[in-house]
Task: inverse folding
């Protein structure tokens, strides 16, 4: 099993970023996919999830209206489009499918 998170970086407040993950070795297309994040000195928190058919999507309250989760089962990828980013969105972002986690990708929102 392999899950690779990518697409992080540094962006100014109000900017956008779209980290993604690519998975192999398990039934990605039959799995809920979730994004989590961990800010410095804080516990990892859930951000968003998407069902295998993309019909059911949920977001944490503080990212609703700014983040959009999507997936492409043909490519075994999932993406988190993040708009209007705030400094408090800074952290390492992780993709999870079943009990498989990516290594995380750093997102830093700073002026």
Result:
């Amino acid at each position: 099993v392999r899950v690779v998170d990518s697409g992080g970086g540094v962006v100014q407040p109000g900017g956008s970023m779209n980290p993604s993950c690519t998975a192999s070795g398990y039934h990605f297309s039959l799995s809920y996919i979730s994004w989590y994040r961990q800010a410095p000195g804080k516990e990892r928190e859930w951000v968003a999830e998407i069902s295998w058919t993309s019909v059911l999507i949920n977001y944490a309250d503080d990212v609703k209206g700014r983040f959009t989760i999507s997936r492409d089962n043909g490519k075994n990828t999932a993406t988190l489009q993040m708009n209007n980013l705030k400094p408090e969105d800074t952290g390492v972002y992780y993709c999870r499918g079943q009990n498989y986690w990516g290594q995380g990708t750093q997102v830093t929102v700073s002026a």
Summary: The two ends are 38 Å apart (CA to CA). The chain has a mean pLDDT of 97.
